[in-house]
Design goal:
By secondary structure, the chain is of the alpha+beta class. The protein has two domains: 1-303, Tetratricopeptide repeat domain (Serine Threonine Protein Phosphatase 5, Tetratricopeptide repeat, Alpha Horseshoe), CATH 1.25.40; 306-387, Alpha Horseshoe (Serine Threonine Protein Phosphatase 5, Tetratricopeptide repeat). It has helices at 52-56, 60-69, 76-88, 105-111, 116-129, 185-190, 199-216, 220-233, 238-250, 254-267, 272-284, 288-302, 306-318, 322-335, 340-352, 356-369, 373-387; strands spanning 6-10, 96-97, 113-114, 133-139, 145-148, 151-163, 178-181, 194-197. The strands form two sheets. Strands 1, 4, 5, 6, 7 and 8 form a six-stranded antiparallel sheet that branches. The relative contact order is 0.12.
């Protein structure tokens, strides 16, 4: 399972049949004075949003752990290893990854369950308490989507950068020694480029995740409060403006939704998700001549991304268009044959078609490729189930 950290929602598939060589031109407009609709999202009950202090706060147990294990003369790299050992070792905390667990540092530590964002927040808080020189980094991962009900969620990723402190007792002469703490082995292994982000951006990502989860659960007042808080915490974080646009669209405020998308695109011209959601909004309003060039532009950029084809496959599967799903899964595998998710998608689609021999073959490949033990166990259980089915045709 990939430990991706923050989300921008994507409502519907971009299924494109034609391409254009023209450069995309979206009318750039200055951001309006106010993109908020407080009066439209009045909550029934008061909403208590976590403060930055609450997000990173440690309790006595956590401070005692830092004093016992991290306040010493070890190098920053060794301290990072000690911290990870304590968090994940069965004899200590034994944390489990849970994609929906957007929680503050203390809750992650004591519930022993967290997602990538919460793990990163907790590790940062513990490292800072130990006096370590630590920063947040955003990792420039390829576009990657996960399905959640009617939505596809485009994911982003963050990790921690730990540097040695330049003091008298441990001076680094040749270059700066750096250690990355990353809770996704896949991302760490691939060595994608990354850049340091400030704490405000990370906090905005946390609020954005909480808002996206509330949006998926159709709790629009809660989603609004968190997404607004995200944009106020870091008004340059594009994903929260894009998600705010989706909230406005789903609640029927099309004009403000378009302005929110446009503001996101003004902040980052190559924000493909904001462009894609803008195109969907234009199509919903019958403005096809404006939407089509945007869709064609996005398709040209994404066509070589295997995860894009997996997205199209997932959307086709969701619509029960199984033959189309198979074509897209095969294209994803052609572009990258090392991702177990593609083979699992292929296996479940063949199963829906009653092609059990092909389904078992794809399932075996998924088992071989996955390295996460929890996922491997699930795949093996599904494979064993397939072995006891009667093949109808193949």
């Amino acid at each position: 399972m990939k430990g991706f950290c923050y989300f921008i929602l994507f409502c519907l598939p971009l299924l494109l049949s034609c391409q254009s060589n023209k450069n995309l031109h979206v009318n750039q407009i200055p951001p309006p004075k106010n993109l908020y609709l407080d009066e439209k999202f009045i909550p029934i009950y008061p909403i208590d949003i976590e403060t930055e202090q609450q997000i990173f706060q440690l309790d006595d147990d956590m401070r005692a752990m830092v004093q016992a294990k991290l306040v010493n003369n070890l190098s920053a790299q060794d301290k990072a290893l000690v911290l990870l050992e304590h968090l994940f070792n069965e004899e200590n905390i034994a944390l489990r990854y849970e994609g929906n667990a957007n929680v503050i540092a203390t809750d992650a530590y004591h519930s022993k369950t967290a997602n990538c964002m919460s793990l990163t927040i907790m590790a940062y808080a513990l490292a800072k308490e130990a006096g370590m020189n630590v920063n947040f980094q955003e990792v420039d991962v390829p576009e990657y989507w996960v399905r959640n009900g009617q939505y596809s969620l485009l994911t982003g990723h963050v990790n921690l950068l730990v540097r040695e402190k330049d003091d008298i007792t441990r001076r680094i002469v040749w270059g700066e020694k750096r250690t990355q703490i990353d809770f996704d082995p896949f991302v760490a292994r691939k060595k994608f480029p990354s850049h340091v982000i400030n704490k405000n951006t990370l906090v905005a990502m946390f609020y954005n995740n909480k808002g996206a989860a509330a949006l998926v659960n159709k709790n629009y007042p809660l989603a609004y409060q968190y997404l607004k808080k995200a944009t106020l915490t870091d008004n340059t974080f594009v994903s929260s403006w894009g998600n705010l646009g989706i909230l406005y669209k789903l609640s029927g405020h099309y004009d403000t939704a378009e302005k929110a998308y446009m503001h996101a695109i003004n902040l980052k011209e190559d924000s493909l998700s904001s462009l894609g959601n803008l195109a969907l909004l234009l199509k919903k309003q019958g403005r096809l001549s404006e939407a089509l060039p945007i869709e064609n532009y996005i398709h040209r950029i994404r066509v070589s991304n295997p995860y894009y084809h997996a997205l199209l496959a997932n959307e086709a599967f969701y619509r029960q268009s199984y033959q189309q799903a198979i074509q897209h899964y095969k294209k994803a595998i052609q572009l990258n044959d090392e991702q177990h998710e593609f083979y699992f998608g292929l296996a479940k689609t063949y199963y829906k078609q009653g092609k059990l021999i092909l389904s078992k073959k794809a399932m075996k490949k998924a088992v071989v490729l996955t390295r996460a033990q929890h996922t491997k166990k699930l795949y093996i259980a599904k494979l064993n189930f397939l072995k006891y089915q009667e093949p109808s045709h193949h």
